[in-house]
Amino acid sequence: MMHEQNKKIKLPGINNLSFDEPLIFELGSEGRIAVRLPDEQPVLSLPQHMVREEIVGFPQVGQSELVRHFTRLSQWNYAVDTGFYPLGSCTMKYNPKVNEDVARLSGFSYSHPYQPERLVQGSLRLLHELEQWLCSITGMKRATLQPAAGAHGELTAMMMIKAYFEDMEEKRTKVIIPDTAHGTNPASVSMCGFSVVPVKSGRFGLLEVEEVAKLMSEDVAAVMITNPNTLGIFECNVGEIAQAVHEKGGFVYCDGANLNALLGKVRYGDTGVDLVHMNLHKTFSTPHGGGGPGAGPLAVKDTLVPYLPVPLIDRHGESYRFNYDLPKSIGKVKSFFGNFLICVRAYAYILALGAKGLSQVSTNAVVNANYIKSALREHYHLPFDTPSLHECVFTDKKQQELGVSTLDIAKRLIDYGFHPPTVYFPLVVTGALMIEPTETESRETLDQFIEAMVRIAQEARENTGVLHDAPHRSKVTRVDEVTAARKPVLRWEKTLHP
Amino acid sequence: MSYIPNTDQDVREMLARIGRENADELFSHIPDRFRFKGELELPEPVSEMELISKMRQLSQMNSSLRDTSSFLGGGVYHHYIPSVVGHLIERAEFSTSYTPYQPEISQGTLQAIFEYQTLMCLLTGMDVSNASMYDGASSTAEAVLMALRSNRRSRIALSSTLHPEYRRVIETYARANDKEVFLIPYNADGSTDTGLLSERIDEQVSCVVIQSPNFFGIVEELRNAEKIAHSKGALLIVVFTEPIAYGLLKPPGIYGADIVCGEGQSMGIPPGFGGPLLGILACRQGLLRALPGRIVGKTHDMKGNGSYVLTLTAREQHIRREKSTSNICTNHGLCALAAAVFLTSYGKKGFRSLAAINHGRAEYAKSALSKLAGVKLRFSSPTFNEFVIETEKDPDKIASRLLDEKILFGIRLENYYPELENCTLISCTEMSSKQEIIRLCTLLKEI
Hints:
The complex is a heterodimer.
Chain A: H1 63-74, H2 97-103, H3 106-109, H4 121-138, E1 142-144, H5 150-167, E2 174-178, H6 184-190, E3 195-199, H7 209-215, E4 220-226, H8 238-247, E5 251-255, E6 275-277, E7 298-300, E8 312-316, E9 319-323, H9 340-376, E10 392-395, H10 397-400, H11 406-415, E11 422-423, E12 432-435, H12 443-462, H13 464-468, H14 481-486
Parallel strand pairs in A: 2-3, 2-4, 4-5, 5-6
Antiparallel strand pairs in A: 1-7, 6-7, 8-9, 10-12, 11-12
Chain B: H1 8-17, H2 48-59, E1 69-70, H3 83-89, H4 92-95, H5 107-124, E2 128-129, H6 136-151, E3 155-159, H7 164-176, E4 180-184, H8 194-200, E5 205-211, H9 222-231, E6 235-240, E7 259-263, E8 279-283, E9 296-300, E10 306-310, H10 317-320, H11 333-370, E11 375-377, E12 386-391, H12 395-403, E13 407-408, E14 411-412, E15 423-427, H13 434-446
Parallel strand pairs in B: 1-13, 3-4, 3-5, 5-6, 6-7
Antiparallel strand pairs in B: 2-8, 7-8, 9-10, 11-12, 12-15, 14-15
């Protein structure tokens, strides 16, 4: 497809009203308070040596100052609600507002984890049904909703695999991880005392059966696969790989961060996967919150069910009960029952879409990614020219020749009103630009983004200076990360910030 | 489909632009045997108004703390959340942004976390804080891993008065690391038996983990524990489940704690059936490089403007992979923001008043309950806003009878401490009015 630079496409740009705002500790004055408490001065029944004075340094501001402070800070943020966020692997889709309303229903948000079972039947039913739905979507037997994030789900999976082999009285010490994997994979593995055996991906960044089979032995507890992988490409050999792993008694773990591409298209269980985690804050559209909270449920096949964290939630006729009777369980990875209010949002999302809607989500996510890929391939180097799904990875190879890097391209996108893609990941691609548009972006937004990328490619040829200093229109320009790390200033102190 | 803007016609035109007949072609490289041909077993989709109605029905199958008098605590507390907290954290610029990897367009989140880190340091009396963890339990488990990394020892001493859920999570993490956990019993007064700690600690012990106020609500004397732990080269980890307590109590930093960690739910986060919560993790300067999780630092931009950035990333999994200090990636950023707004709402004077009110209400309840026939205080040590009572009658029967009157009795302790028969953990906050406490006493007399 030719994508001529189109003067008619108006880019969002940025040119906002942005205030300066000091730290909260530098505002207000002695004695101010933003919210009034009941007027009482209770007698303290604590030994005097245990009691502290008022906390010196705590803010003292009025309510209007407080609201203005945090509102101004918020205005310095880019967000899904303000613009396009093509962060590869992060699945920054639009988060439906109604899900926020239902998560705030008092029966959900004001229920206590120690309430008797019969007073939380709504919560238990919701968690039980969500577990069933996630198992249906992934083709697995049962799931735990306890893990708080994707990496936490991975960790839970590795703990379960370790417990399984201990139970079988087998000593397995290694886990095979491809070089395209998310950094959390090896980190989770080493937290369980396993050593990491890296496996090189082959042509098109795909895992090859022979490579995995060569490394596979009775010392290997599991292989971790991401499917589609971090290049957005489906791991076609997953069936044969699973067979090779299973023959030696190992497990196949799937990092389900990219489930967004496969809803209703492929069930992980059918591909030989034994355990898979999901990121509810990616695939099931719960807001990311500037860094969480999310949720990382883990679904498993039959063999591993006895090792799931406690409690499971079982249905008995019309009522739902906690099941702590799992003698082989790894125990708990988090207090109580997981990030319940995130589960409420994901439940509402699935309820609104149903099977057909979820399948459409993946169709549209894949169409959008391929539309971008097709439009940009003549302007940017495509390291793997092979069919891909919900995201596509370009590099800065063409622009490097002109002295322009991936970082420059990413930062210049900010001036045009877009969040940069994921950059320099996966590590197997030099100068990677990993673009994931998601299904919630309109064709017009994609056209705008494509136009911005085309203009940047042109700037690389004509005016590299404007790229090296980008962004120009943001609240701050590129920041000095080296100084931040060398001389860490990690908190306000009266003496440091007079 | 309302969450997908493109119509079938849009999609057809887009496919035509990329030379495809239909969308299915884009999936055709997936081996046929893996293609799912059926339809997922899920309920039929509903409209937005039907969705609200279904969800409301489900939520009404729960009883809400807002419609009851609750004396439940034990790590999750029913505190008042100032109106400003919800309004500010629900701003979409905060709630729908990603982890602030691009500092130029994330200064809002970054500065707010920097403020949060400062508030946590002031609250706990520690030098540095990270940008949040999942919850108090997993934060404590990570603190233990930090200790294991920094002194490479193999045993972990847990006070038996540490929250039972926290102990369970630490045991899970420790087992995965092939490390041994052992418990230090509590005294007759309900505090950690430092005599026994002294006897059982040796040079293999990596850390001593003590909660204060502990699971029984008792304020622990940390000075002894600190001496014992440090005399054997072990780290002292102090845990809390009720941060409001530090509005009134001296912070663990003063007693020489190496790591302070715990739960921040009390600060602007609803109970939410136990999640999402807020994991707090702070330490002394010397342990900074072993600290897991995100950390925000101050720096400047190319033009010299002050700015903030995620820093010390060389500890983290996306750089160090299997050698990182932790696997944590997504944390609980929005919950940390809620805590920062909450503390700012009350500020220096208000936060202390809030702590005093909590303590005052609990002391009122403690005194009123202990005067009832058939009820006595189980322990004599000073408490903050929770305490343990022992009843002549079976606590389950009492709880069930109170429920008829829309009162949630406390937590039955026998489930976690078999020796504490007929003992119940009662929690009061600023939400527990004197009238409610009097009503509880009146009903207890009748039961």
